[in-house]
Structures are given as C-alpha cells and as structure tokens.
Design a protein that fits this description.
The chain is about 50% helix and about 5% strand. It is built from 21 helices and eight strands. α5 runs antiparallel to α6, α17 crosses α18 and α20 crosses α21.
Length: about 475
C-alpha cells in the first residue's frame, strides 16, 4: 500500500494552564486559599499585601530588577538546586504540637527495660508498626521479612513474639494487640479480677468472644448458666475497657484534627439573611505602584526601550501580567462562590430559617447548575469541602444535597426527612428487641413514605447505625 498524506479537521477541547489554575482556586477552601495567596505574594515580586504595606515602613524608592532577573554566576543553575521531589508527592500539613507522640512514649519506656542492642532494634521496629489506635495489624512473618530486608537481621518469628510481649507490657494497657479480643484481655491482665463480674467478663472474652461480638446474649447466658443481672454487670465491665488503647494517649503525636474555618457567613439576626464570604484571614493583594513606575521610567517618551533595559522590562511585564491574572482569578472565584451560595440559600430558604432538617428540599447539583447557568462540575467544585456558618451551627455544603422521594400522596420529600425519621425510630426502640430493616420499612410505609427495605438499609448505613442484631442490649 502506498503512503498518502491526508488532512483532517477535528474539534478538540483543551484547557489552558490559566484555566487549570482557576479551577484549582475554585476548589480551595478558605484556609488553603489563604496559604495560596501568601505563596503567590512570595513568588511574584510585584504583588503586595495591602494591609502589610499600609502598616509597614516605606520601601526604598529605587529597586534593582537585576537581582531578580539574575546575573551570570560561576555555578551553573543545575548545581544550585536539588530536586528530590516528584510531582506526585503529597504535600502534608505540618502541625506544631506539644508533648510526645505515642511511639515516642513507647520508645522512652523501652529505654528503661534491660534489652540488648538487637532486642531494642526489634522492639523499636515493632513500635513503629503500631497504628495510631494502638493495634499491630501486621503479621509476625512480615515483620521478620522486613527486618531481614531493611536491617539485615535474621530474627525468628518466635523471637519477635517474645519481644512483642515486652512491648505489650508498656502503657497504655492493651497496646500492641493484634485483635480487639487480645487488647481486651491485655487490659484485664493489668487489673485485679476481684469480683465475680470481672472474672465472668474475662471468661466471656477469652472463651466466648465470637458469640459476644455477635451479641448472642441469650446463648451466652444459657451456656454460662448465669442470670441476666449477673451477665449485665459483666458486660458493663467489658464496656469500661478501651476498644482503641492508642486513643487514650492524647499528648501530641498524631495529626490533630484541624479547626473548621467556614467559607461563608450567614447572618439573620434582624430577620433578614445576609450572606458574605469569610475573607478575614485572606490577604488583600494589589500590584505594587513601584514596579509600574519602574516600567514607565524605562520606556522613553517615543515608546522605545534601551537595549540594556529590554530584559528588565520583559521580566517586570511578565510579573505584572501574572499578578493581574491572579487578582482577576481571585475575584472570579469570589463571584462564582457567592452566586452559587445565594442560589442554594434561595432554594433552601425554609431550612436556613431555623435549621430544621425536615424542611430541606430535595436538591441535586443540576438544580443549582440550571439556576446559575454554570456547569455541574463547577457547582461540584464550589460545594466540595466548603462550609457555611449559621446561627444553628456550621454546615457542610455537600450535606445540603439529597435525592428526592415521593410519598403516597405524591408529595416530594428529601431523603434527609427519611433519615430523621429512621434515627428517631431507632433512638426510641426497645433495645432488647431492636427494629429490623423490615420493621423500619413498615413504619415508614405506614407514615406514607414509599420506600423499599434495601433503601432503608442504605440510609441506615449512611447514618452509621449497625444492624438490629448489633444494637441489641440486655
């Protein structure tokens, strides 16, 4: 076959780098936007913080652009910087905390044990493999293999088991356990089983843990030949133990949960609703007048530029253009967020009056997109990880969106209303005989809500409520 040249015309959608940056700015919540603006001020010399400028001292009138555009240097640029990071590396937040972490506390306790150098290395390695909640979820064989590969140490599984038992003697009690059963037993070993209820609890966890976990209480009482009151006392003792011993250690360590900074502020103190963006911590930026004047000074009245100033002018112009785009992108972000949130506020006005979730109307992203003439993906980026502060609390915007359901009368209601009724039914149920999903379906159908059992199960799981068997109590 002969080779032929052929022209084809096709339409392709390409996103410019500026559009990508705009999308990223739109997704940022308030706290991250503040960091992004400060980063841009540091990177772009023509941008300045309005407040910092007004409070600071007057800057020198003359500024040398040469120090920014660079000079010839003896050292090549590739030797002056080191790039050890991949573009896929995740930027992790750095928290300044007081106190010590759980692992630091465990290692410090190990220093008071009479361990050989090899035993100490193995013990520290075990401590490093313990999760934040205090469990060792890696099997012993894997730890042995890792020590062989990373440390060049041949340590048998029996030796690791022995050193693990030393780690499990540290505080807090139950640390280093490989299962909930082992953690509860370790905690019981630290206490004196000086009552029948405690001894019975130990027997339940040690010999009948599976039945206990599945809440087969009647079978347990029959198998142990005990009464209900005695069994209840043993269960209460078990509940006093910690299912996650690592959480008992609160002095620093693991990443603290950051405070929620609302992106929108809603004030209805005088009966009306006033919506505003929370921009208290975000610097107000502008282009420095000094660099504008510098550009004018380097351009002759006839519009020509000296050859020696050409590079400096191009540099300053590129920085000013970049600053103009960034300021415009921030303003566009502000307009898009306000436009979207005002539409949501108007759509859910009854809910925002008093915060009653039963007044939430069914709402999906397309409803807001149609009313704002924006794309669904834009609405999704606006509401993602954004919060609004109201007089009844701080609300995650995504939680306002829900599917609609119809009642037997044909009225459309929000799934939030269904979840509220489910929660009320489960809160008021007889814990000896909890309501099954089928019972809950019958209750909702009797109230006029057409709902299937699988939908009840889905909403129950969304509310983080276990099945009826796991809610059973004595």
């Amino acid at each position: 076959m002969a080779n032929r040249l052929q022209q084809t015309i096709s339409l392709q959608t390409k996103i410019s780098p500026q559009q990508i940056q705009m999308i990223k700015l739109l997704e940022l919540p308030t706290m991250l936007l503040e960091e992004r603006v400060k980063q841009e001020i540091e990177e772009n010399i023509v941008l300045e913080d309005v407040d910092a400028k007004s409070e600071g001292e007057d800057a020198p009138e003359k500024i040398s652009v040469e120090e920014y555009i660079g000079k010839e240097d003896d050292a090549p640029s590739y030797k002056a910087r080191i790039n050890n990071f991949s573009k896929d590396d995740k930027q992790r937040p750095v928290y300044i905390t007081e106190g010590r972490s759980l692992s630091e506390s465990l290692v410090e306790q190990l220093n008071f044990r009479s361990l050989s150098e090899e035993e100490m290395i193995v013990a520290v390695y075990i401590v490093g493999s313990i999760d934040d909640d205090g469990y060792l979820r890696r099997d012993i064989a894997s730890l042995s293999d890792d020590l062989a590969f990373t440390r060049g140490m041949e340590v048998s599984t029996e030796e690791i088991e022995r050193i693990l038992s030393i780690v499990q003697e540290l505080e807090p009690a139950g640390i280093g356990a490989r299962s909930l059963q082992e953690s509860l037993l370790l905690q019981m070993q630290r206490q004196t089983l000086d009552s029948r209820a405690k001894r019975l609890a130990h027997k339940i966890i040690d010999a009948h843990f599976e039945a206990f976990a599945k809440k087969h209480y009647e079978k347990l009482m029959s198998r142990l030949d005990i009464g209900e009151e005695e069994f209840r006392e043993a269960i209460e003792y078990i509940r006093s133990l910690s299912p996650k011993p690592g959480n008992l250690y609160n002095d620093g360590g693991v990443d603290a949960t950051p405070y929620i900074t609302p992106d929108f502020l809603l004030d209805n103190s005088d009966g009306g609703m006033r919506l505003s963006l929370n921009s208290s911590g975000i610097p107000e930026v502008r282009i420095s007048r000094r660099y504008r004047d510098m550009m004018r000074d380097m351009v002759a009245p006839d519009g020509t530029i000296k050859a020696e100033d050409k590079e400096a002018v191009q540099f300053v112009k590129s920085k000013i253009d970049s600053a103009k785009w960034f300021i415009s992108a921030i303003k566009q972000r502000h307009d898009t967020l306000m436009r979207t949130m005002e539409t949501i506020l108007d759509f859910q006005r009854e809910y925002f009056q008093d915060g009653d979730k039963s007044k939430l109307r069914p709402m999906i992203l397309k409803d807001i997109a149609d009313r704002t003439d924006l794309d669904v993906s834009t609405i999704s980026r606006v509401v993602n990880s954004k919060y609004i502060q109201t007089h009844f609390g701080i609300i995650l915007l995504k939680s306002l969106f829900s599917e609609g359901m119809q009642t037997t009368s044909g009225e459309e209601v929000s799934s939030h209303e269904i979840k509220t009724i489910l929660q009320e039914c489960i809160d008021g149920e007889d814990k000896r005989h909890p309501l099954t999903d089928e019972n809950l379906m019958d209750i909702l159908n009797d109230k006029g809500y057409k709902i299937a059992r699988r939908t009840v199960a889905k909403y129950r799981e969304m509310l983080d409520i276990p099945v009826a068997r796991m809610r059973k109590q004595i």
